[in-house]
Amino acid sequence: MGVSIRRIVPLAVLACLAVLPVAGAAASHTQPKAKAFEVKGARYPGMQHLRLKYGPVLVKPGQNTIEINFDAPFPKVPGYITRFSPNLTYLNGKVPRVDVLHLHHGVWLLDFQPVFAAGEEKTILNLPRGYGFAYRPGQKWALNYMIHNLLPNRDRVYMTYDLDFVPASTPAAKRIHAVHTIWNDVEASKAYPVFDALRGMGKNGRYTYPTQSPTDPYAGGAARNRKVIDRAGALVFTAGHLHPGGLANDLYLTRGGRSVRIFHSVAKYWEPAGAVSWDVAMTATPTSWRVAVKPGDILSTTATYDTRRASWYESMGIMPVAMADGVKGVDPFKHKVDVPGAITHGPLPENRVHGGKPSGLPTASSLPDGPVPSGPVAIKGFVYGQGDLAGTGLFGRPPIVKAGESLSFVNLDANPTDNVFHTITACKAPCTATTGIAYPLADGPVVFDSSELGFGLRGFTPASNRDTWRTPASLSPGTYTYFCRIHPFMRGAFRVVS
Fold it and tell me: Among residues 164, 252, 282, 291, which is most buried (max CB within 10 A)?
C-alpha cells in the first residue's frame, strides 16, 4: 500500500494525520552566497540547542509514498520549543541532493494536531521572542512524512530537526506565551491536499487557487480554505508552502463580511531559470508581526502559480499560523499588518544541480517509426517498454498509433512487491537534456498526464489506484515526447500518424 502505518490507529485518526507540508515559491535570478541569510532565533538564558533525528529510514527504489510513525524523539523534560529547523541526511550526515532524494514533506503532530512541518524548500519556523510551543513528556507525537526517491536504488536516511528549547525549569520559561498551530490549507479537508495548475490557467500567466478555479472546487460543501477562529488572541507567525511553479501564498482575515489581506508569503527563487524548481525560500512574517483576532473571525488562504511555461501537477498551498491565546495584537481593519516578510535561508548546496545540459539522448522526431504495439506499452524496471529514449535499436523507436486512436500504457512496476509509481507527462521536444531540479518540465505543446500510475490507500497517497492509461485520441499527427514526473530521468516518445 502507499501508506505504511507502524502502529494500528483508527481510520478517522489517519485522516487527521495526513495533512501536508509548510513552505514554498517566486522570483530572483541571482545566486548569492549562502552566508548570513538564516535568521537566528531569540536567545533565552538556559536555552538548549537540540539536534534530534528519526531513523534510519529505509528508502526503497523510486519511493514516493506517505509513512506515519509514532516514535520520533522529542525533549525529555517539559518546556517550550521556539525554533524548528528540519532536514534530511544520509547516515554519514551529508544532505542528499534534491534531484536524487528529498523530503517531500514532514509533519510533526502533537495529540494528532499538526504543529511543525517542512517541505523540500526547508522553511525554518522561528517564533518571535516571548512565544513558544508548549511541550511536556508523555504527549502523543506522530510523524507524517513522504520521502521521494527519484532513482531506482535503495538508501537509508535520517530525518533531522534542530530545536531551540527552553526548559520549563528556567526562569525564562515563565515569560513565554504558549502558541498553537492553525492549519490553513487551500484543500484542508483532503488527506492528500493537492490541485493541478495547468499551463494557460488563470489570467496573464498566473493562476490563483481556488479563486480562479474554472469549476467550483468546493461544490457541495463549505470552503476548505477557511478556518474559523474560536477564541481571542493574536497571530504571531506564518509562512507559506508551495510547490515548484508557485509564486505566493496569501492569508486573509474576514470579520463581519469585510476581508483584508494580512500576509503575502512570497517565494524567492535562487533557481536561475525562475519559478520552476525547489531552489527557493519562502518569506515568513517579521518578528514584530502581531494580528489581533476575535471569535468568529475567518482565516482563508490562496495559492498563486506561474502557468505561462509549464503545467504543475499535485500542487499545494498551505499557510500554518502560530496563534497565542489571550494576547493583544494589532487590529488589521484599523492598521496595516500586511508588511513584507523575510526569507529563512539562502540558496542550499543540495539544490545546485539544475539540469538542462546535453545528454546524448536521441531526438525522437529523427528516429524511424517503431512498431504498432499489439498491447499496452509496458513500464517495467523504470523503463518504457517501447520508445524509451535511452533504448537502442528497434526498442528505442517511437511506437506509432493512428490519428483518432489511443496508445495504451501499463505500469508493471506497480506490483504488490515494489509498488513504484510512474507517469507519462508531456514535455517539450526534444526533452533529452540532463535531469536536474529544473529539468524536465511538463511543458509539452499539448498538455497530457497519466497521473501517478500505482496503488495506495485512497486519499492518503498520490496514487491514482490504477496501473493503465491511454493517450488522448484527439492528438494530431506528430511525434510526442514525455517523461515520468516521479523519476524524471525516464524519457520516452510515441508517434501519431495519419
Answer: 282
Sign of the dihedral through C-alpha 64, 70, 75, 79:
positive
Helix (H, G, I), strand (E, B) or coil at 349: helix
* Residue 55: C-alpha distances to residues 86, 110, 151, 316, 437 (Å): 14, 19, 20, 27, 26
CB proximity list for 174: less than 8 A, separation 6 or greater: none
106 pLDDT above the threshold of 60: yes
In the numeric block, which cell numbers belong to residue 449? 498526464
Tell me the domains of the chain and their CATH numbers. 3-351 (no CATH), 355-498 (2.60.40.420)
pTM over 0.85: yes
CA distance linking residue 120 with residue 127, whole number of Å = 21
Mean pLDDT of 342-352: 94
DSSP characters for 363-418? PGGGSPP----SSPEEEETTEETTTBTT--GGGGSPPEEETTS--EEEETT-STTT
> Can you spell out the DSSP letters for 116-138?
EEEETT-PPEEPPTTEEEEE-TT
Q: What is the pLDDT of residue 2?
A: 40
Residue among 240, 265, 256 nearest 318 (CA)? 240
| Cross-strand partners of 132 | 178
Rounded to 5 degrees, φ, ψ at 365 are: -65, -20
Query: What is the tens place of the pLDDT at every residue in 214-267?
Result: 888 888 778 889 999 999 999 999 999 999 999 999 999 999 999 999 999 999
Reported as a pLDDT band with limits 50, 70 and 90, residue 71 is confident
Map grid coordinates 476575535 to a residue.
294
CA torsion through residues 432, 435, 436, 439, sign: positive
Handedness of CA 262, 268, 274, 278 (dihedral sign): negative
Place of cell 544520509: 90
Length of the chain, in residues: 498
Rg for the chain (alpha carbons), in Å? 23
Task: Give the three cell numbers for residue 411.
Answer: 505500469
Looking at residue 1, its amino acid is M
- Other CB atoms closer than 10 Å to residue 416's CB: what's the count? 7
Question: How deeply is 222 buried, as exposed, middle or buried, from its count of CB atoms within 10 A (0-12, 13-18, 19+)?
Answer: exposed
Contacts of 222 (CB under 8 A, 6+ apart): none
Output phi, psi for 14, to 5 deg. Answer: -60, -35
SS3 149: strand
C-alpha 448/C-alpha 496 separation (Å) is 14
Cβ contacts of residue 368 below 8 Å, gap of 6+? 397
- Tell me the longest C-alpha to C-alpha distance in the chain: 80
